[in-house]
Amino acid sequence: MDMQLAGLTLDSPFIFAPLAGVTRAPVRLLARRGGAALVYTEMVSAMGLSLSQPQTLRLARVWPDEAPLALQLFGADPGRMRLAAAKARELGADILDVNLGCPARKVRRQGAGSALLDSPERARAVVAGAAEGWGGPVTVKLRLGFDRDDLAEIVPGLVEAGAAAICLHARTTRQGFAGQADWAAIARLKAWCPVPVIGNGDVISAEGAVAMLKQTGCDAVMIGRGALGDPWIFSRAADLLAGRQPRPVSLSERRRALAEHAELALREGEALALHLSRLLLIWFCKGLPGASEIRRAAGCARSWREVLRLGDSYFANLEAV
Ligand SMILES: Cc1cc2nc3c(=O)[nH]c(=O)nc-3n(C[C@H](O)[C@H](O)[C@H](O)COP(=O)(O)O)c2cc1C
After folding, report:
1. Among 18, 108, 296, 313, which one is least packed by beta carbons within 10 Å?
2. Residues 208-247 pLDDT 10s
3. How far apart are CA 151 and CA 94, in angstroms?
4. Atom of ligand 1 nearest to the CA of 223
5. CATH class of the region 3-241
């Protein structure tokens, strides 16, 4: 099940998506332990990284035990991209990814993210800058185009500029997160794209991940929201793909993962441990009885220890039922 991506060998085709505000190192490490073959930082500002701004360096911190890791940059200026990509190499990233898909106004206003899809020449120059600074091929994550599938006009230039893989979130910029991801567009891209294609959008189960691989022919599948609260989705998908019966996740595994995660998050300080433990508890309880009470209580908790205690008694009660 090994696959090659930008010079790396991954041990499965199931990858954890970059999620701003979420995919900090502890959450990434949990996904790696849950079977994600590759994890991404959230998008990091090329400007901030090239200037070594402290808050950007915090987002770009790489832990040795999470490899392989892709560091994702956003920016509009090829020179800044070059400097930031060189810095990413120093920081220990294994892959450099360029964000050409973010639809947020504050990113588009800078000419970065999905705004680059509206200007293929500029996109190409930004990717070339990244590849030059990185010193080798990079990967690109993008959407279909502004309001239709423009990939045939955009992707060939990106590949020439040094894109060694294309990850497609199969929505347009205009769609934001509305509607359905268009998996047929992933299959269309795969049919002619000269580099590996990573499919992305609306995979919410292990079965869905395998279905995307089979329906679109893509080389790898990236899972974002479907992995929140379910970092084990990656190994279940790998089991299914290999024809093995996936093992269900028990309540005590969720309880242990919460504690394991808080311990990891503490490496980055108490504030991050509180923030991420709250998020994790809320995700882990989603769909279970009493989830809304837990959400409220987690919101009021003042320390990560309190969040852990809440989670412990919640899961112990459920197990006792
Ligand atoms: C909260 C949130 C933050 C995101 N942040 C990023 C980001 O930093 N970089 C990026 O390329 N995509 C980002 N995305 C998009 C996801 O990586 C992914 O493309 C999208 O959620 C669709 O995949 P999914 O249906 O599996 O979640 C974000 C999405 C969400 C919901």
Report:
1. 296
2. 999 999 999 999 999 999 999 899 999 999 999 999 999 9
3. 26
4. 26
5. alpha beta
